[in-house]
Specification:
Helix content: 40-55%
Strand order of the largest sheet: 2-3-1-4
Strand content: 15-25%
Structural class: alpha+beta
Shape: globular
Mean pLDDT: 96
Radius of gyration: 16 Å
Bound molecules: 2'-deoxyadenosine-5'-diphosphate, magnesium ion
Number of strands: 4
Number of helices: 8
Distance between the termini: 32 Å
């Protein structure tokens, strides 16, 4: 099976409600590893690029206002089938329709306040990761471990 990387955003509603650790923990418990993370207030231009696929949709202006309103935690997670696994762990966009046990079903309040973003496929994941992170901000676990073993 293929090891993949996916972009996860713990959105401002999750941060404000004190759910950052709970959400990160759920991804970690499913075996996904953190290869990059930053806590940041998002610039409007980055938010527009990130949500470019939604241009023309009525909810986009509100979504951009919300995502830029206060800091969020942006992360790159890695693992076998990470993209699909993360989407499953998050649950469907609408918390009311998300599978029980998923982050959005258990903790989400509404379609707009659904706590988390995750890349939706093999095309969007690398595009989104490149938007949010420089390659130098990401860990290569294999190389890092080997280097440590050599130096210790
Ligand atoms: P997802 O975040 O599950 O990939 P999406 O890409 O369709 O969902 O939409 C991006 C975000 O936009 C979503 O997490 C919340 C918001 N959104 C989507 N549809 C919406 C709607 N009908 N009303 C309000 N916000 C919406
Ligand atoms: Mg999406």
């Amino acid at each position: 099976m293929a090891v993949e990387r996916t972009l996860i955003l713990v959105k401002p509603d999750a941060v404000q409600r004190g759910l950052t650790g709970e959400i990160l923990s759920r991804f970690e418990k499913r075996g996904l590893k953190i290869v990059g993370a930053k806590f940041m207030r998002v610039e409007r231009t980055l938010a527009e690029q990130h949500y470019a696929e939604h241009v023309g949709k009525p909810f986009l202006p509100g979504l951009l206002d919300f995502i830029t309103s206060s800091p969020l935690l942006a992360m790159v997670l890695e693992g076998e089938r990470a993209i699909e696994l993360a989407r499953q762990t998050m649950g469907a966009t609408d918390p009311g329709k998300a599978a029980p046990g998923s982050i959005r079903a258990d903790l989400g309040l509404s379609v707009g306040l659904n706590l988390v973003h995750g890349s939706d496929g093999p095309e969007s994941a690398p595009r989104e990761i490149a938007l949010w992170f420089d390659e130098s901000e990401l860990i290569d676990y294999k190389q890092a471990t080997e280097q440590w073993l050599i130096e210790s």
